[in-house]
Amino acid sequence: MTNMAKKELFDKTKPRYLKADKKGKGAILDEFCSNTGLNRNYVVQIMQAGYDYNRAKREGRKSRRWKYDGDVINVVTKIWELLEFPCGARLQPVLISTLDAMVRSKEISVNNEIREKLGQIKSKTLDRRLKKEREVRKLSRSRGITRHGSLLKSSIPIRITNWDTSEVGFMEMDTVASNGGDPSGECIYSLDMVEIYSGWSEQIAVMGKGEVGVIKAVDKVKNVLPFELKGMDSDGGSEFINWHMVRYCEEHGLFFTRSRPYMKNDNAYVEQKNNTHIRHWIGYDRFDNQKQLDAINDLYRNELRLFNNFFSPVMKILSKEKVNNSVCKKKYDEAKTPYQRLMESSQLSQEKKRDLEKLYLSLNPVELKKTINRKLKNIKKLQLN
User: Which overall architecture, per CATH, does domain 170-384 show?
Assistant: First the structure.
């Protein structure tokens, strides 16, 4: 029986209980306890005429007294700051050992009562008591800067099955921040898009991750792809989950899906390229001005995309097998470049293949690499200025 049903039964039974004689009250109590499963002594108490059953709902429950007063929390806060603001689950096991080290170094002095309470405090209590302090300091447990898109999630389906890697034209996309570890202010973001069948990837830099700017970047990529773009998949970031993206996909006939929240492996293809095609080249430094944006795009949209797509081999996983129910044994196919995979596909027109072959034959990988290194040095100089 639900609590609401118990409440309704109580409202109907109590007037009848108050009017009944002793024998009738006993029968009513037996019936009520049998139906609700409540303790008989408790039911006798709430059935009394002077008992206000709705007081807690009307006035609210009395708050409990703090077991750990301000002196205890002050010590906790000092240790929390020292350890770079860990969560309660990481902080609680080392409270006493860290406190002892601080006492030995004469950095802090506490009495036995505070030390005893620090040994009793639980991780959930630490998270609850430090919540306000975390908000004041504008700390986040996740140091990443992807923020969920609060709208339209019901309009964008979640992709809950594996990709069909035999079909050309479906891409995963993500953004990578070049903020140098400081999420404040506006910085340059790299839009990374990876095609599932071939591993063909495109990168383009945008200032900030505003909805309109990301849409324009996606459109630029779409217009230079050597294949027809059929669909896109993203995480739940607000740069993708918005009306602009939904309208863009509807207007161009694109199938748009999103991954499950907090499931990074749902976007495994693009997550790998975030490291090899962006972090490996431009690193983790902060870039936040127009000159840097132009220089990074000059690299992305010219030599780097040619080098990655025509000369960098990609391996595709064929199967996974668990050994002894723990170790996962993976089997991969022969490594091939995205260009080679597209040329072997029957889904590309002969005209597209001829254009790709002509471009491929005109490229010099050694010169491409030299130019990439020269442009990277220029980007680093701009970062230092």
Answer: 2-Layer Sandwich (3.30)
Q: Whose CA is closest to 195, among 235, 238, 227? A: 227
Ramachandran sector of residue 349 (left: φ over 0; alpha: ψ -120 to 50; beta: rest): beta
The pLDDT value recorded for residue 145 is 52
Q: How far apart are CA 233 and CA 223, in angstroms?
A: 18
Q: At what angle do helices 365-384 and 290-299 cross, to 10 degrees?
A: 170
Cα–Cα–Cα angle for 166, 231, 277, rounded to 5 degrees: 80
CA 301 and chain centroid, separation: 28
* Domain regions of the chain by residue span: 3-58, 76-136, 170-384
Tell which residue, 201, 204, 208, has the closest CA to residue 183. Answer: 208
Q: pLDDT value at position 374?
A: 94
Q: What is the mean pLDDT of residues 202-227?
A: 93
Reduce the DSSP state of residue 357 to 3 states and report it. Answer: helix
Q: How many residues appear in the chain?
A: 385
Residue 11 — very low, low, confident or very high, per pLDDT cuts 50/70/90? confident
- Count other C-beta atoms under 10 Å from residue 202's C-beta: 25
Q: Are 217 and 191 in contact (CB under 8 A)?
A: yes
pLDDT in tens, 145-196: 555 445 455 556 666 556 677 889 999 999 999 988 888 888 999 999 999 9
What span, in angstroms and rounded, lies between the C-alpha atoms of 268 and 357?
A: 29
**What's CA 257's distance to the chain center, in Å?**
16
Angstrom distances, CA of residue 324 to CA of 311, 321, 327, 328, 329: 38, 10, 7, 9, 10
> What is the reported pTM?
0.60
Q: What percent of the chain has pLDDT over 70?
A: 89
Extract the tokens encoding 99: 């406190």
Q: Where are the alpha helices (DSSP H) in 22-82?
A: 22-36, 40-46, 55-59, 70-82
Q: Give yes or no for residue 294 having a pLDDT over 90.
A: yes
In sign, the C-alpha dihedral spanning 306, 307, 308, 314 is positive
Pairwise CA distance, residues 334 & 313, whole Å:
9
